[in-house]
C-alpha cells in the first residue's frame, strides 16, 4: 500500500497543477477550513443552520461557505475530487468564470432550499431539532449539480461495464445510495441527502433555463428533460407533471416558454429548430458517433495487424514440406538414380560428338557445357 501512495500523490499534484485558479482556490479553501475545524466548530459558524439562516438571526454568509466546510478527511477527499473533476471535464467547455458562477448558484440554492425544507418540517412537527440541531455543509449539494452537468455533456459515457452503467444514471444512483445509507443509520443526519437533492435540482434548473452560451440560453433538448432522470416506466407520468409545473412557472414569469426557431437563411429550405432537435444535442450526437467510429476502426486495425493462428500453421507446414523434400535425388540406388546417370551419359556423348564433327550446333537446353573442356587423346 505504501508504494502506491507516492504514485497517487504524483498524479494528484499533476492533475491539480493543470487546473485553473478557480479550482485551486476552492480546493485550498476546503483544506484550510478542514485544518481550522480542529480548533473551531466550523459547521456551526459556516454551515447552514435553518434556525439561524432566517430572521431574526439571518446568517446569510453560510449560504456561500457551507459548501467548502468539512470535518472528516474523507469529506475533504470527496469535496476536492468533485471540484477537480468539474475543472477537468466542465471547465474546458464553460470557462473558469462560468464554473465559478455554477459553483455559487448551486451551493447558494442548495443551502437556501434545504433551510426552507427544514423550516417547513418544523412548522409541521414543531420539533426544534429541525431548526437548531441540523447542520447542512459539505460537498453534497455541489456533487449533485456536477453529476447533472455531466449528464448533460457526456451522459452516454459508460462508467461501469459489468453491470453496464452510463453516466446519465449517476444522479439517480447516488440519490438512491444516500437514501439507503440514511435508512440503514450509517448516515447520521438527513442534511447531506437534502443538500444533494436540492443541489441536483438547482443545477438542472440553471442549466435548463438560465445558463448563457453561444447558442442562446439554456438547454431545451429532450435528453436533458426532467423526466429523463427517472426510469423509463415513470417518465410519462413525470413528464406530464413536469409540464404542468413548467406551465405554471411560465405564467409566473419564473421560467421562459419553449419557442420554435426558424432559420430562413439556411442553405436549404426553411430549417425548423424544435426543442428535441437542439444544436447542442446534435453536436453531442455527432461527437458520440465519431468516437464510436474511431473505436471501431481501431479494433479493425488491431485485428489486421496480427495474423491468425491458421495462417501460422499453414506457413509452418509449407516450411516443413519444403525442408523434407530434397533438391536432387540421390544418384546411388533406385531407378531415379539410374535415369539420371543415363541422361547425363547421353548428354555427354552428344556434346563430345558435336565437338568432334566441329559443327556449330548447340542443344536447345543444356545444363552443363563442355565446349571449353580440353579433349582427351
Automatic annotation (TrEMBL):
Membrane topology designation: Multi-pass membrane protein
GO cellular component: membrane
Chief subcellular location: membrane
Bias type Acidic residues, positions: 309-320
Keyword Chloroplast: no
Compartment(s): Membrane
Keyword Lipid biosynthesis recorded: no
Annotated transmembrane regions: 12-38, 99-124, 130-150, 193-210
Record InterPro entries: Rhomboid-like_sf, TMEM115/Pdh1/Rbl19
Start and end residues of each stretch annotated as Disordered: 300-377
Keywords: Membrane, Transmembrane, Transmembrane helix
Bias kind Low complexity: ranges: 324-361
Name under which the protein is recorded: Transmembrane protein 115
Lineage: Eukaryota, Metazoa, Chordata, Craniata, Vertebrata
Amino acid at each position: 500500500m505504501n508504494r502506491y501512495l507516492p504514485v497517487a500523490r504524483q498524479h494528484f499534484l499533476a492533475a491539480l497543477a493543470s487546473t485553473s485558479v478557480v479550482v485551486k482556490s476552492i480546493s485550498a479553501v476546503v483544506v484550510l477550513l478542514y485544518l481550522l475545524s480542529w480548533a473551531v466548530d466550523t459547521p456551526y459558524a459556516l454551515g447552514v443552520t435553518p434556525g439561524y439562516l432566517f430572521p431574526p438571526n439571518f446568517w446569510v454568509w453560510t449560504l456561500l461557505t457551507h459548501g467548502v466546510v468539512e470535518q472528516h478527511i474523507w469529506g475533504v477527499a470527496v469535496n476536492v475530487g468533485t471540484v477537480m473533476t468539474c475543472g477537468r471535464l466542465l471547465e474546458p467547455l464553460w470557462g473558469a468564470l462560468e464554473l465559478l458562477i455554477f459553483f455559487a448558484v448551486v451551493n447558494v440554492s442548495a443551502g437556501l432550499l434545504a433551510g426552507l425544507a427544514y423550516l417547513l418540517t418544523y412548522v409541521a412537527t414543531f420539533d426544534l431539532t429541525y431548526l437548531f440541531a441540523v447542520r447542512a455543509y459539505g460537498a453534497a449539494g455541489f456533487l449533485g449539480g456536477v453529476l447533472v452537468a455531466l449528464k448533460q455533456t457526456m451522459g452516454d459515457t459508460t462508467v461501469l461495464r459489468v453491470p453496464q452503467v452510463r453516466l446519465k444514471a449517476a444522479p439517480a444512483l447516488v440519490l438512491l445510495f444516500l437514501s439507503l445509507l440514511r435508512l440503514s443509520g450509517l448516515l447520521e443526519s438527513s442534511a447531506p441527502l437534502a443538500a444533494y437533492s436540492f443541489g441536483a435540482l438547482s443545477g438542472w434548473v440553471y442549466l435548463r433555463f438560465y445558463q448563457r452560451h453561444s447558442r442562446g440560453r439554456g438547454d431545451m433538448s429532450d435528453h436533458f428533460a426532467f423526466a429523463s432522470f427517472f426510469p423509463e416506466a415513470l417518465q410519462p407520468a413525470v413528464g406530464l407533471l413536469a409540464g404542468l409545473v413548467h406551465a405554471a412557472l411560465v405564467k409566473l414569469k419564473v421560467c421562459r416558454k419553449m419557442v420554435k426557431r426558424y432559420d430562413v437563411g439556411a442553405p436549404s429550405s426553411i430549417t425548423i429548430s424544435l426543442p428535441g432537435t437542439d444544436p447542442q444535442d446534435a453536436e453531442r450526437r455527432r461527437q458520440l458517433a465519431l468516437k464510436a467510429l474511431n473505436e471501431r476502426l481501431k479494433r479493425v486495425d488491431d485485428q489486421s495487424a496480427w495474423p491468425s493462428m491458421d495462417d501460422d500453421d499453414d506457413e509452418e507446414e509449407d516450411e516443413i514440406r519444403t525442408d523434407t523434400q530434397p533438391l536432387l535425388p540421390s544418384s546411388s540406388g533406385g531407378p531415379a538414380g539410374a535415369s539420371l546417370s543415363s541422361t547425363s551419359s547421353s548428354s555427354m556423348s552428344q556434346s563430345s560428338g558435336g565437338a568432334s564433327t566441329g559443327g556449330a550446333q548447340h542443344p536447345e537446353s543444356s545444363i552443363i557445357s563442355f565446349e571449353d573442356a580440353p579433349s582427351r587423346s
